[in-house]
Amino acid sequence: MRVRFWGTRGSIPVSITAPDVRAKLAAVLAGSIGHDLSSADKITAYIDTLGFDIAGTFGGHSSCVQLETGGLEHVILDLGSGARPLGQSMITRFGPGTPQIYHVFMSHLHWDHIMGFPFFTPVYIPGNRVVIHSCHDQVEHAFRRQQADPSFPVDFSQLGANIEFDVMPVGVTREIAGIAVTAKAQRHAGGSYGWRLEHAGKVLVYSTDSEHRLENSEERKGFVDFFRDADVVIFDAMYSLADAISIRADWGHSSNIVGVELCQLAGVRRLALFHHEPAYSDAQIAQVLAETCRFEEIAREGGKPLEIISAWDGLELEL
Amino acid sequence: MVLDLSAVEYISSVGLRVLMLAARQVKAQEGQIAIAALQPVVREVFEISRFDLVFKVFADIEAASGSFS
To answer: Which of A241, A261, A299 is facing B50, going by the closest CB pair?
Structure first.
């Protein structure tokens, strides 16, 4: 299985600004003093020495992740603003004249997770089939309302693709697009659902917009079982632990600390920090990643290492 | 209130939550709370979790006690 991240930012899309770009350029140029940059290869080699927060960016699209299994049907997790470039990539890859089938699994129906749908080009093309799986019984209402006048110029009824809504049960594993899919209820305003997807011996868990109370042993065990032996867990690490349990308690999000603890308890192989705080710069996200790696070392206590990554728009992971 | 954590070798998110709840109770009673004598690893966990921004942390009990007005 291959995971592609199209949107990794929480709550609202953001973009780096002109001052951000200028600061990156200044850092690159300052660091280049004394380096031999007399050829394209040497310039590339120098760029490769720079941190991702300097030479790249974590990106700013809201939640959207693609899972590829090699099957003919496409699998998507959430339709945040990252669904726009995802849709364009599918048109580029398959052309507008070849009907495609898309299965979308929704964590919940908050705006940042559905806002990419009206810009997901495949929904305008007759012959395409888009199945939106959700544990929220209001899923169809949420998608129709988003495109209703006066919020959007194209009404949902004008979409050319065949769009279906599938309200799924919680905790019941179903086979969809060749993948064993299970939903788990999470703590978030209005409720959210994590997804465990298993295919060919590999396991991906998508758990965003979820607040945790690990002192509740039953709740903790439920998530440890849900994450158990996953190859990758995509985890809402929006806030610091201090913020998540004080000024932002009950906001429905979690922290890097809790992500590491749950993944270590569950024997997870790789933790992908996700749903980045929109106010964070690239440097701040990079700092959170470095600190999370250090916390993993501290908390490991002789257990097997947990690989930590910070998801970014455009990242691809092979499971 | 001063919490002497000199014998604490590690603290998890559950332990940190207990500290946060204690701080709320102290504040509700118009008291003050300070943390003293963190071992290096626990201090790191405080910094990574940003608890060092929420609590007053001191090198020892005397310094913590002396911080109260």
So the answer is: A241
